[in-house]
Each structure stands twice: as structure tokens, then as C-alpha cells.
Amino acid sequence: MTIAIKRNTQAFSLLELIVALAIAATLAVLAIPSYRAHVAKAHRTDAASALYRAAQFAESPAHVDGAPLPSGLDQAPQAGRAIYRLRILPAGDTNGGYALEAQPAEDGPMAGDACGTFILDATGLRNNRGATGADPDECWSAR
Q1: pTM listed for this prediction
Q2: For residues 128 and 5, which has the higher predicted lDDT (pLDDT)?
Q3: Is the peptide bond before 104 cis (omega within 30 degrees of 0)?
């Protein structure tokens, strides 16, 4: 009586494994920079939204001239770790009574961002201070 040994032929060969890893590595090389750019754009959009919320507060009767922004309006995002710090700048001759700035947190992920510090004044003028080669319209756009 002979016993037949059946071999398992359902495993991957080394060549198939290497090809699959090469494809995964190529996808990662293409996807990671795109993901990082998307996250940076989301942080910028959050900073712009926070400036508009702070502008609504600055123009409300509850705001006292010279007072800092209240907790929750002084950073973006409103809760959790601050990516941007917001503050009210003093009135100037050209800013219509106040200006708000959203500066990247020194230890945050946007510290070296090309858009720099976002500035919104009472006249509605949007600007970026310290922008290195970035178009302000691109920085403020959510698209």
C-alpha cells in the first residue's frame, strides 16, 4: 500500500512576491506626496476659516478693542493641538480698524509652509506674510 503525498501548490513564488512589493512601493512613492499636499491644503483652509470666524467676533459688540481673541478663536483648529495661532493686530492707517493673523505654530506641521502667515484685515484684504513663492490666491483657496 502506497501513500501519495500531495504537494501544496497554492503559495506565492518569490518572483510574484517581488513584483507585488515593487507595485506597492511605486504606489506609495506616488501617493504619499499627494496625501501630504492634501493635508497641508486642509490645514490652510482651516486657518482661513478660523480667520473669518475671528473677524466675525472682532466685528461683534462683544469684542473690546485691544483685547485678545478668546479661547477657541485663538487657534486653528479650534480644539486640540494648535496648527496655527491667531491674534488681533493693532489698528493701522490702511487696515480698516484691525487685522487678524494666523501664524503657523513653531513646532507644528506647517512651520515651514510656503504660504507663511495668513493676514485678514477689516477691509477684507487677504494677504500672506513670509510666503516663499506661493500665490496668495492659491493659499486661500479651498480647491
Answers
A1: 0.77
A2: 128
A3: no
